[in-house]
Amino acid sequence: MSAVEQYARAHIVTDTQEDRGAVPVVLRYDPDTDPRTIRVRLPGAHEWTFSRSLLEEGLRAPVGSGEVRVWPCGRVQAVVEFHSAGSVSVVQFETKTLVRFLRRTYMAGAAPVAR
Questions:
Q1: Which one of 6, 28, 96, 97 has the fewest CB atoms closer than 10 angstroms to its CB?
Q2: CA angle at residue 14 from 9 to 18, to 5 degrees?
Q3: pTM for the full predicted model
Q4: What is the pLDDT of residues 66-103, one digit of tens each?
């Protein structure tokens, strides 16, 4: 099985500076390492690993506790909130970007088709 890595653009909405526009984010899934988790890397060295099902469920209704929380924000956006020692990053994604990534992770984890 092969890893899935998707580059996305997202807005970090907790930044106290002016809106700098979208920032690059890396979404990664590696079924050989752990088929139940995904990783999200924000600019800098900030990376979180959490359950793929948490992301999927959070696109429909608010979920999560601890370090990662996910919830829908209107019809076309979703918010992922990351907690680390003394700070919180709230990141807004287009829902279709996350759905596309999840679809790719399920395709990567599927068994090869017999011929």
A1: 96
A2: 80
A3: 0.86
A4: 899 999 999 899 999 998 888 888 999 999 999 999 99
Neighbours of 54 (CB within 10 A): 18
Instruction: Name the residue with higher pLDDT: 114 or 99.
Output: 99
Other C-beta atoms within 10 Å of 61: how many?
9
Give residue-wise pLDDT tens across range 26-55. 999 999 999 999 999 988 768 999 999 999
How many Å apart are CA 53 and CA 14, to the nearest integer?
25
Q: Is 85 left (phi over 0), alpha (psi -120 to 50) or beta?
A: beta
Contact yes or no for 16/33 (Cβ under 8 A): no
Which residue do the tokens 């990534």 mark?
A: 101
> What radius of gyration, in Å, describes the C-alpha atoms of the chain?
14
Whether 108 and 31 have beta carbons less than 8 Å apart is answered as yes
Q: Which domains does the chain have, with CATH numbers?
A: 4-109 (2.30.31.20)
φ/ψ region of 35 (left if φ > 0, alpha if ψ in -120 to 50, else beta) reads alpha
